[in-house]
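TL;DR need structure tokens for one chain.
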Amino acid sequence: MTYRELVFLVSEAEADAVGDALMDMGALSITVNDAAADTEDEKPLYGEPGLVPEKNAWEESELIALFNEQGLSTEYITQSLQDSGFKVQAPLERYVAEQDWVRLTQSQFDPIQVGQRLWVVPSWHESPPQADAVCLAVDPGLAFGTGSHPTTKLCMQWLESFADAGQLRDKTLLDYGCGSGILAIAAKKLGCGPALGVDIDEQAVISAKDNALRNEVVIDFHLPESDPIHERYDIVVANILANPLQVLAPALVQRMVIGGHIVLSGILARQADDVIKTYSPWLELSIWGEEDGWVCLTGQLKQAVAESQKKTPESSAGDIQAQDLRSERGWLACPPWLAIVLISTLSLVFVVQVLFLARNTIYHQLAKLPEPSQKTFLSTFAQVDSWICQVLPCQNIPLADFSAWAIEYAQLDMARGQGQLKLQIRNKLAVPVQWPDLELVLSNAENQDLETIYLKPSQWLPPGYPLLESGRFASPREEVASDLSLPVPREAAGYRIRVLYLENPASQP
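>> reply
TL;DR here they are.
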């Protein structure tokens, strides 16, 4: 069978309606391209997750309608469109011969050499003859990730270099926004330990599971809501887009172990500085590689020096005083046992005084420890603190630290100057924390900032939220969801959101 393609030039305003009219006249499919593609006037149209594009066509679009050869005549179709009020001219007409479409599609996908050893090989191709080749059997499908895009290549090349350096063996890995699962599969093939893949698209999760089975590797793939444990990983990989990577920054960093590595891609070179700045409160990112205008950012979560390891002038003076007392055997003509009692008493008073003065700081620092040791230390300190507060006037000061918060979910739907923000935020710590303020930065399609909106807790928390009237403190591990409306510029196309404390500049990221 031979098919007939009719190529119309239509305006942005008429593209959708002309396409619908052609479908009503028996078109088998409609394709809309930029009429200025591959020229200096080409204008990309793209959106990011959670955003509805304001435009669905270009200023001048090339609309291709596919008909059976025996369908309506070209003249009749053109006249019908003109009679309906559409400003179209006679289309370009071309014929498409019947072919083995499956074989034709497969011929467009050859094995891809991603790194020195890594290859992506479709199932209909033979593996390369390279002796040390690490081959991934991944067929093109509905989920993103076939190894051909620069962002996927850069992430896979980083994994290969990490493995070649002997650092990937038995490491745990989280692939956030896994798509086809190609990155997690590559990591398993290169020798990493337990791996998890997460994606918001159910079809991607299904595709990733199929690909893992085809590659004979064991990886857990599921939707975000099916991941309640929130474990920490040695390596976190996220190949998404710049805007969601910035929105997800607190959540992704939260999934890293101390000393763990993060690998981010889906970022244009001009967006790298903004992403690096967003992650700067937690770790230092740098550009690991660049290809065709896309970059891969990497960084490591380094452990800070514990406050308890720092020698203070007070503790040094106490040590000297205790040493002097021990050396004065005849001090005040006291027998040795009495000197020991006095020294012990003075030391206890000193320790209690230090704990009293620094109790809030110590409590907050213990709450940031990893889960296994956090519970033990917090329980022990709580018993000591309870005894101290029985004899001294204690005052509980809630923590005001933006890093205590994890943005679990954020989506801003924008249409005709009105935005609907859905937000889910969680206190990660086992201590009360002051409710934070929110900063919402709106940008246009060129990623230029348009407006910055600051929301106080009274503005973003659900109406009548009980804890708002009782001191503005969030309970330990408390999680709250909010849904609020707010005006946005009509040209807004992207957004970034973060937590901060406007009344406490020192705590801002």
